[in-house]
């Protein structure tokens, strides 16, 4: 039985890498970090936004504080598999994530207005431990925080689909601690859910390019700093949702008003997944 972490507070630094930089960083990790138990996983995220996409517009203005709401799945979950409804906040460079895990059906019901506890009780996860986690006091408290977010920004609707293949690395030695994580996202694509008939996902980056993200609660170890210098990898403010939003049609071509309901079909995940299951990276 795999549990999940529902709260994160850490520094997350992104790097846009080309193929040679990616290979150099993978080589630098040898002996210090290795892929975690999940290996490479297909991640599918649906971002919710207002009808005029005020949330991503504000985020791109780089304010001191910003927040997003998304539904995230790993692999290709079906109706009774676990997905995560997550608020992602960023304040002064520190990322805070609050999320609840429940079945895909429960998540859709919840995002369509059904109270969180009722949705989890009506559409429970088949694993009793997972089901208990979804209704634990801590999860219910996080759901209340999500409720406040939704009420503040209502109405919300599916805005953007972002998919990628993620490989997460964790330390193999105690010297680097337990909090360091490095993820590599490849094959990043997007689909504009504001389109009347969303098209097939489009590539977000040029062929061979990807995104590396270093996640740590404290300073980077010296060996990692040297590795970044050696391959000339520099921090980037790259946002998948933001980059996809900029690539979409001009605002004038988007509908001024969009229905707030979250259709379950918008959250059916692709069948070409590498692996499914919850994870913390």
Which strand order spans the largest sheet, edge to edge or round the barrel? Answer: 1-5-4-3-2-6-7-9
Percent range for β-strand residues = 25-35%
Number of helices: 8
Number of strands: 10
Helical coverage, percent range: 25-40%
How far is the first residue's CA from the last residue's CA?
17 Å
Which secondary-structure class do the elements indicate?
alpha+beta
Which stretches are poorly predicted, pLDDT < 50 over at least 5 residues? 251-260, 266-281
- Overall residue-averaged pLDDT value: 85
Shape label: globular
Order of helices and strands: EHEHEEEHHHHEEEEHEH
Largest sheet: 8 strands, antiparallel, barrel
What's the gyration radius in Å? 19 Å
- Number of structural domains: 2
Protein name: Vacuolar transporter
Organism: Eggerthella sinensis
InterPro entries: VTC_domain (IPR018966), VTC_sf (IPR042267)
What's this entry about, in short?
The protein is α+β, with helices and mostly antiparallel strands and 281 residues long. The protein is 26% helix and 34% strand.
What can you tell me about this protein's structure?
- There is one protein chain.
- The protein has 281 residues and is α+β, with helices and mostly antiparallel strands.
- The chain has 2 domains: 134 residues, no CATH class; 103 residues, no CATH class.
- Helices cover 26% and strands 34% of the residues.
- It contains 8 helices and 10 strands.
- Strands 1-5-4-3-2-6-7-9 form an 8-stranded antiparallel beta barrel, surrounded by 6 helices.
- Helix 1 packs antiparallel against helix 7 and helix 3 runs antiparallel to helix 4.
- It is globular.
- The two termini are 17 Å apart.
